[in-house]
Specification:
single chain; mainly alpha; 0% strand; globular; nucleoside triphosphate diphosphatase activity; hydrolase; NTP_PyrPHydrolase_MazG; NTP-PPase_MazG-like_N
């Protein structure tokens, strides 16, 4: 009888098995008790630690923090595999992500795919996303409102500029040429706000809510074309004026 050697598990397979053992009967009671909701705080912490490693850490820092984020993904998939109504595992997570990436890169994976510029790729990405999510009625749909205010502002402004509701070539309000110049200015604004007892994060979120209301109103004037505003032209509603003070 011919004996076949069992394939050596990959490092990723070993990680998946480790999580399964920790959550199984006789494993770690803490791990077994966790839920998607209870792990959110750790996912947030690990993500911020990974960002710090990317920005200012060493190779070992990056290696460790990538592993911590990966562990969170595997942990959530393990919970889903045992949760009625979810019933998926890490393999299904990977399979769906692969399908998404292949579908969003026809210029790479399609038989007749042609080389494209970065701008053409981004435009095509938006078209594919719009087709994938026809229920979205606004360019703002899908933006996580729980993002830090500065990151949220960048995302909202980018979406509005993309469909022509905000000018992309408007004169700069401040003569800023680099992030090295921008950082101290932002810090000075926060410092001045703090000296006056003001909350910079809350103030920016309030301004963003108002801006998003304006964008949605402008979209309604144009027509429900969502991402591409297919039923109208942004010029029909006018460009949203950006505050100068």
């Amino acid at each position: 009888m011919t004996e076949y050697a069992q394939p050596t598990p990959s490092a990723f397979d070993e990680l998946v098995a480790t999580v399964a053992r920790l959550r199984a009967p006789g494993g770690c009671p803490w791990d077994a008790e966790q839920t998607h909701a209870s792990l959110v705080q750790y996912l947030t912490e690990e993500t911020h630690e990974l960002i710090e490693a990317i920005e200012s850490g060493s190779r070992d820092d990056l290696l460790e923090e990538l592993g911590d984020v990966l562990y969170q993904v595997v942990f959530h998939a393990s919970i889903a595999a045992e949760t009625p109504g979810e019933d998926f595992d890490i393999q299904e997570v990977a399979a769906r992500m692969t399908r998404k990436m292949v579908g969003r890169h026809p210029h790479v994976f399609a038989e007749s795919g042609a080389q494209k510029t970065t701008d053409e790729v981004i435009a095509g990405w938006d078209d594919v996303k719009a087709a994938e999510k026809p229920h979205r009625t606004s360019v703002l749909d899908g933006i996580p409102q729980g993002m830090p205010a500065l990151a949220l502002a960048d995302k909202v402004l980018g979406r509005a500029q993309k469909i022509g509701l905000l000018e992309t070539d408007a004169p700069a309000l401040l003569p800023i040429d680099s992030e090295a110049e921008l950082g101290p200015i932002l810090l000075a604004i926060v410092s001045a706000a703090k000296a006056q007892g003001l909350d910079s994060e809350r103030a920016l979120r309030t301004a963003l809510r108002d801006l998003q209301d304006e964008i949605r109103a402008a979209e309604q004037e144009i027509g429900d074309g969502s991402f591409g505003l297919a039923d109208g032209d942004p010029a029909d509603a006018g460009v949203i004026a950006f505050p100068t003070a």
